[in-house]
């Protein structure tokens, strides 16, 4: 794990060269790694081109990209000596997008996509967060505590537009029971004993249907199980039970898919965000 730290020595490199490296490596994932949402932290201010903050932020992006983070799917790195030029970046890849050589490339490519997405959607803004299907990127002028308490403000949900055709309340109960099982399995220690992976996934038969579910927490999260338990309560609101749903936040996310037997999985759906603040961008046509 890479812990946050402040470096007095900095390295500069051409921004255009960095952007070329990123653009070169993202093209293969554009069709499979959907953009989900973003939030610009306008209260952290803006930076000027060539400023000390921009140099520090570029250094952090470059440092993460040159480290073998795709083996662990996580990075937390900072640079800066004063409040005005301090930059910290946290990356969390989806639990099934790293570890092996083939899956690790998804994590690395998602980072490149997220960096470009952050620069495009929050130009010259010092802080922000952006979600993709394969990873979450957080940029800030304020360092994150390790471990950190759950932030319940930056949360949004996405739902399959199709209602459950069976007993909806029974379906919802079984889904919540399934998530409870996964939540109990979310903490796993790596073979070297140095890291705890906060990720679990599984499938469960429900009559003619197969449920696929995934839960994950940001590796810095102090109360992962509480975060997941709270998030699962946002899957179904006002007895509106859908065939699939996802809830994302800056500390954890939960996902449920309901693929019917003998039918192809739905790969393109119009998802409706709920309880999203005005500072969030609205989402369009993504895989639920």
TrEMBL record:
<keyword id="KW-0732">Signal</keyword>
<dbReference type="InterPro" id="IPR038408">
    <property type="entry name" value="GNK2_sf"/>
</dbReference>
<protein>
    <recommendedName>
        <fullName>Gnk2-homologous domain-containing protein</fullName>
    </recommendedName>
</protein>
<comment type="similarity">
    <text>Belongs to the cysteine-rich repeat secretory protein family.</text>
</comment>
<feature type="domain" description="Gnk2-homologous">
    <location>
        <begin position="35"/>
        <end position="144"/>
    </location>
</feature>
<dbReference type="InterPro" id="IPR050581">
    <property type="entry name" value="CRR_secretory_protein"/>
</dbReference>
<dbReference type="InterPro" id="IPR002902">
    <property type="entry name" value="GNK2"/>
</dbReference>
<keyword id="KW-0964">Secreted</keyword>
<keyword id="KW-0677">Repeat</keyword>
<dbReference type="Pfam" id="PF01657">
    <property type="entry name" value="Stress-antifung"/>
</dbReference>
């Amino acid at each position: 794990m890479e812990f946050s730290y402040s470096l007095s020595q900095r390295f500069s490199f051409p921004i255009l060269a960095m952007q070329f490296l990123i653009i070169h490596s993202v093209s293969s994932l554009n069709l499979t790694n959907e953009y989900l949402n973003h939030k610009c932290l306008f209260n952290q201010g803006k930076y000027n081109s060539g400023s000390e903050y921009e140099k520090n932020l570029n250094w952090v992006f470059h440092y993460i990209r040159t480290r073998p983070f795709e083996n662990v799917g996580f990075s937390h790195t900072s640079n800066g000596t004063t409040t005005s030029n301090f930059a910290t970046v946290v990356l969390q890849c989806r639990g099934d997008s790293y570890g092996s050589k083939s899956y690790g490339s998804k994590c690395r490519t998602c980072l490149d996509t997220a960096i470009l997405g952050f620069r495009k959607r929050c130009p010259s803004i010092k802080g922000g967060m952006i979600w993709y299907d394969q990873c979450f990127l957080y940029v800030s002028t304020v360092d994150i505590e390790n471990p950190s308490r759950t932030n319940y403000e930056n949360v949004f949900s996405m739902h399959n537009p199709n209602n459950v055709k069976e007993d909806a309340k029974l379906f919802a109960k079984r889904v919540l029971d399934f998530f409870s099982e996964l939540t109990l399995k979310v903490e796993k220690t790596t073979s070297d004993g140095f890291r705890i992976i906060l990720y679990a996934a599984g499938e469960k038969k429900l009559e003619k249907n197969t449920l696929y579910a995934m839960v994950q927490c940001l590796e810095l999260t102090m109360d992962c199980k509480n975060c997941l338990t709270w998030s699962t309560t946002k899957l179904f609101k006002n007895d509106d039970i859908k065939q699939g749903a996802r809830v994302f936040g800056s500390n954890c996310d939960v996902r449920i898919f309901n693929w019917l037997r003998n039918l192809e999985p739905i790969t393109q759906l119009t998802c409706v965000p709920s309880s999203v603040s005005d500072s969030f961008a609205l989402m369009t046509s993504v895989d639920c």
